[in-house]
UniProtKB/TrEMBL annotation:
It is found in: Cytoplasm. This is NISCH protein. GO terms for molecular function: kinesin binding. GO terms for biological process: Golgi organization; lysosome localization; regulation of protein localization. InterPro entries: PH_domain-containing_M2, PH_NISCH_C, PH_PLEKHM2. It comes from Campylorhamphus procurvoides. Keywords: Cytoplasm.
Length: 348
């Protein structure tokens, strides 16, 4: 029997982000309030009778086996497992995942019957949690490729709250303590290969789950990558990344209703001189221990880049969060007008 405060908190969190589309079955879940939500969890989702629902969050998720399919999910954290309640449409979205999802219920094509799949990751199988840059997303890693999920919260508050709740729940797990470390001798201490690259900041929880946070070098690597993409500007002594945010690029669909648009996930990076949109791989990096080969695509792929000095105006929508921004750039591309002006007036 959860406390009134917890029931109220879970009810408040049970809201689908307004800009994302979900199926009827998930809309039904989002409509549940208070004790009805807790009863729904125990009656339809929970695997053990005595587990407690501790946290609820709506988030886009990516699976390691299907890195190109981002799907909306209701993420439920209990004292035993993390449950991802998914649209049934996701099962049929990718041809290559027939071995990943069982198709036992695929014959339920009756339109009045709305099915949701539930992907379960038991806390005992959890090995590590990688937190993304600026807490925009986090990746949960289990013992195999089937057990790697990234939650694209696009919100540092939601990420922080979930990680806190997860740590609290993991503290309740009774796990056997790690064996005592063996005293290292001189040769093993100083003979270990040093790559010269600083490892990411790791926090090893008492449950032996690793929480891995990015270090400053990751921002440095990203700044170097961005500098490579900037034509003729790589000689800049210092390139500062002012903003890193996971956003959506809005493409209005031709010939459809005025409000219909398709959202394409993008990573927006703002520097002191340029605005970039990248396609980022949120699920494959850092490489899991069992990975036999590197991923087929780079972590960052440039989708678009414009100079700030070419920016003509920024249009802001007046709707509530999430805010829509339209950047209008000048048509004249790759012509440095100030540079030409200087040559005309002052010669060499």
């Amino acid at each position: 029997y959860p406390s009134e405060f917890l029931v109220q908190k879970i009810t408040e969190d049970n809201q689908i982000p307004v800009h994302l589309q979900v199926s009827v079955s998930l809309q039904y879940v989002a409509g549940l309030k208070g004790s009805a939500l807790v009863e729904f969890f125990h009656g339809n989702i929970a695997e053990v009778e005595n587990e407690e629902l501790r946290h609820l969050m709506w988030s886009s998720v990516l699976f390691y086996k299907t890195p190109n399919v981002e799907v909306m999910a209701c993420v439920l954290l209990s004292t035993k497992a993390i449950y991802f309640l998914l649209d049934d449409s996701f099962v049929h979205a990718d041809e290559h995942q027939s071995d990943f999802w069982s198709k036992e219920n695929s014959d339920c094509e009756n339109s009045s019957f709305h099915l949701s799949c539930c992907f379960v990751l038991k806390l005992n199988d959890l090995q590590s949690v990688n937190v993304g840059l600026f807490d925009q997303y986090f990746r949960i890693t289990g013992h195999s490729a089937d057990h790697i999920v990234t939650c694209l919260t696009r919100d540092s508050y939601n990420t922080h709250t979930f990680i806190q709740q997860l740590m609290a729940v993991l503290s309740l797990l009774a796990r056997t303590p790690s064996p005592e470390p063996v005293d290292k001798d001189f040769y093993s201490e100083f003979g270990s290969k040093n790559t010269g690259k600083m490892e990411n900041y790791e926090l090893i929880h008492s449950s032996r789950v690793k929480f891995i946070y990015p270090n400053e070098e990751e921002i440095g690597d990203l700044a170097f990558l961005v500098a490579e993409k900037m034509d003729g500007l790589t000689h800049l002594p210092s390139l500062n990344i002012l903003l890193y945010v996971l956003a959506f690029q809005v493409n209005h669909v031709e010939g459809s209703a005025p409000n219909t648009s398709s959202l394409h996930p993008k990573t927006l990076i703002l520097t002191s001189s340029d605005l970039f949109l990248f396609d980022e791989d949120y699920i494959s990096y850092p490489l899991p221990e069992f990975a036999k080969e590197p991923p087929k695509r780079d972590k960052y792929q440039l989708a678009d880049g414009r100079r700030i000095r070419d920016l003509d105006r920024v249009l802001m929508g007046y709707q509530t969060y999430p805010q829509a921004l339209t950047f209008v750039f000048d048509d004249v591309q790759d012509q440095d007008l100030m540079h030409n002006l200087t040559l005309d007036h002052f010669g060499e």
